[in-house]
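Protein record
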Amino acid sequence: MKQKIFMYLFVFSILLVLFQYVSAKRIFEDQDLKLKNATLKVETYKDSILKLNAEISSQAHFNLEKNEDALSYFEREGYDVDNLMPYVKDEIYSTNEVKGQHPLVPYASSEGRKILINTVKLLNHKWIIADFSDGEYWGEVFVKYYVNKDRTVDFEMVESFLYPFD
């Protein structure tokens, strides 16, 4: 009788070990599959990041913040570039406050609306591109700017266009 009990216990323990082995193997394979999928995703994301960084670099080519020659020009003139760029943007935005015809936009606004410059991008130490709108019509303007010795900024409109209205 004792021998049968030990035999049953032995068979039961073998079945228990076998069950744990199969279960652990299944868990291990599942974790291994998840790890491989995660590794593939990481590689895909790394490639995407590299591609986006290259695109950002190419888009930032005409950008004062990335243009070492233009930044050096301002530094040689004694300007603090970190403060100058926001100052120039604020000055061009302040032209929105002029009564009557906008000084940088050669188009009349529609139905008594006011044309406003919305977005400004400093291309280098001499040029700005900006978009404008009166809520119905919109366009872009190319502006030369000059930072004077007395720290004032003068603007000269070079070219502009108005998008066709459909």
